[in-house]
Amino acid sequence: MSELVKYQGLSELSAVIQSDKLTIFQAYKVKPQVVTTFLTAFMIEFCSIYKIDDNKSLSDEEIKECVQILINDYKFLKKDDFEVFQRRAKRGLYGNLFGYFDMPTFFQMLESYCQSRAEEATKINKVKVAELNKEPISEKTQKLIKETIEKLKPKKIIQESYCSLELCSGLACALYRDWE
Q: pLDDT, tens digit, for every residue of 150-177?
């Protein structure tokens, strides 16, 4: 994950989410063989983390099936997601395995990672929305707003008593005006 240096200070998940790397879906459209090979190697390496006998781990056919499921159902993940997921699994964040490792176990672990990822993405989006709401309106936008208001102002008001700018919004005021 050395490519994520520009995101130093962020959590692993934040860095992955905010990186501009291709998703599985995007990469698969361009180089399907490379993505398939990467995911196959990832699955083989992931199975080796738990040092379980070959007959109690995923078979070659199950690994191929996992790769297809990853391509079809987890297309939003990026290459770095798999590296972070694997590191977290090595630390035991997705539980301990006792005796065997199968496809449902792997996908339960991956779902747990995806849930953490979704929570982090929600936090990031909330921060971005809050920052956008704090930003002042640019001078150009302010000028455009003023020009638009000026264009919408009526040339003559029928009765000022029906409408004062303090009591009415712009649209409500328009109802009481004569648009010559």
A: 777 665 544 444 444 444 444 444 444 4
CB of 52 closer than 8 Å to CB of 33: no
3-state secondary structure of 159: coil
From the list 75, 81, 115, 76, the residue with the least C-alpha distance to 4 is 81
Burial class of residue 61 in the structure, from the number of CB atoms within 10 Å of its CB (0-12 exposed, 13-18 middle, 19+ buried) = exposed
d(CA 81, CA 88): 10
Q: How far apart are the first and last CA of the chain?
A: 66
For the chain, strand residue ranges (E) read: 156-157, 177-178
Q: What is the pLDDT of residue 155?
A: 55
